[in-house]
């Protein structure tokens, strides 16, 4: 991914997340059909009842904190260290720092600070009327699993 494209991608993901939240049920009495966005002719009622709109991010894209008490390094943290692989040698070390800003891993020990972070994040999403869904893989993998098992090629990872 080009470094210049990263801010645009983050912006697009943020817009999609805002739209999906606004168009979905948020506990308010307002009916979803009253929310209008430019959708190239597709309206929410065009989709089957119960259809869930969603967005996704990976830890590398948004969290930061790989070197502290957060998520631990991923395959992307290692990949972007290759000189010249990304324009201006940009990385996602800080990303949008979701780990600190959301309100304004394998065979080792459980990372209780990381678990607590996700508990806080999920609680906050529910508080705001957002239904969280778990995504088992989104282009990101803990580096420890890649090194030990050669990533997704191993049945021990899947």
Provide key terms for this protein:
mainly alpha, GH, 35% helix, 158 residues, Glyco_hydro_1
Task: Decide which structural class fits the backbone.
Answer: mainly alpha
**Beta fraction:** under 5%
What is the total number of structural domains? Answer: 1
Overall pLDDT level: 74
Tell me the major beta sheet.
none
Count the E strands: 0
Q: Tally the helices.
A: 6
Cα Rg: 18 Å
End-to-end distance: 26 Å
Low-confidence stretches: 22-30
Percent helix, as a range, is 25-40%
Form type: globular
What letter string, H or E per element, gives the SSE order?
Answer: HHHHHH
Task: Explain how this protein is built.
- By secondary structure, the chain is mainly α.
- It has one domain (5-153).
- Helices cover 35% and strands 0% of the residues.
- The model is unreliable at 22-30 (pLDDT under 50).
- Keywords: Hydrolase, Signal.
- Residues 1-24 form the signal peptide.
- This is GLYCOSYL HYDROLASE.
């Amino acid at each position: 991914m080009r470094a210049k494209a990263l801010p645009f991608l983050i912006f697009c993901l943020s817009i999609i997340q805002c739209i999906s939240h606004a168009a979905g049920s948020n506990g308010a009495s307002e009916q979803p059909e009253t929310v209008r966005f430019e959708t190239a002719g597709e309206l929410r009622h065009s989709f089957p009842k119960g259809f869930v709109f969603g967005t996704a991010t990976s830890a590398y894209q948004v969290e930061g904190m790989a070197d502290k008490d957060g998520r631990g390094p991923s395959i992307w943290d290692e990949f972007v260290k290759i000189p010249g692989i990304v324009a201006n040698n940009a990385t996602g070390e800080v990303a949008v720092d979701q780990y600190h800003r959301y309100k304004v891993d394998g065979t080792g020990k459980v990372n209780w600070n990381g678990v607590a972070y996700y508990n806080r994040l999920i609680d906050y999403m529910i508080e705001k009327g957002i239904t969280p869904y778990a995504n088992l893989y989104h282009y990101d993998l803990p580096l420890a699993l890649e090194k030990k098992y050669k990533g997704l090629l191993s049945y021990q990872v899947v």
